[in-house]
Amino acid sequence: MHIHKFEQFWIKLSFVLIAFFIATVVYGFVAMDLKVIGDHATIDPQNLQETKFGNPGVREVTKNGQTEYEVYVQTIQFAYSPGTAEPIVVPANTRVTFYITSPDVLHGFDVAGTNLNTMAIPGQVAKMTTIFPESREYGIVCNEYCGPAHHIMEGIIKVVPKSEFDKSNLVE
Ligand SMILES: [Cu+2]
């Protein structure tokens, strides 16, 4: 069977492109350490008061003998609780796990300048773990349209040196 040389060229090019796209995905996951954020758990969005989200904030936990922090955040129209009225304060060089959910509508939780980025879906709990290497402030922005004041929905994560971390603001 004769295949015209232009036809051969485009057939070969399509295979090269498919291989390239697969390679970029593999590179992202292996070399850049990207993680898919799992549906950690489901939750009743009408009843967050009964859960740790009812008293959101930073908690100290011990895992495998290490001190770590858990941060429960509610995303609400149009603020992060905590995060907007008061910053989320966590220590540097320590494992921090965020648990994020929404009681109302879909929101985003995007920590600008990092690869921490998740949707906050009513009824689901997003979980993501990180270690902030340096002491600085990060902005949180909502990147899912959530209503008329979506554009002003923002928050702050303040990463402080371990020695300056004030445990009196932890929640029980
Ligand atoms: Cu929003």
Structure in words:
The protein is α+β, with helices and mostly antiparallel strands. Helix content is 15%, strand content 38%. The protein contains one helix and eleven strands; from the N terminus they run H-E-E-E-E-E-E-E-E-E-E-E. The protein has one helix spanning 5-30; strands spanning 39-42, 57-63, 66-76, 79-81, 88-91, 95-101, 107-111, 117-120, 124-131, 137-141, 154-160. Strands 1, 2, 3, 4, 6 and 9 form a six-stranded mixed beta sheet that branches. Strands 5-11-10-7-8 form a five-stranded mixed beta sheet, with no helix packed on it. A hairpin with a 2-residue loop joins strand 3 (66-76) and strand 4 (79-81). The chain is elongated and about 75 Å long. The mean pLDDT is 92. The structure holds copper (II) ion (CU). Residues 78, 107, 142, 144, 146, 150, 153 line the site of copper (II) ion.
- What is the mean pLDDT? 92
Morphology:
elongated
Helix percent band: 10-25%
Helix tally equals 1
The total count of strands amounts to 11
What letter string, H or E per element, gives the SSE order? HEEEEEEEEEEE
Q: Biggest sheet, open or closed, and with what strands and sense? A: 6 strands, mixed
Strand residue content = 35-45%
The hetero compounds bound to this protein are: copper (II) ion
Classification by helices and strands: alpha+beta
- The unreliable regions are none
Termini gap: 75 Å
Radius of gyration: 21 Å
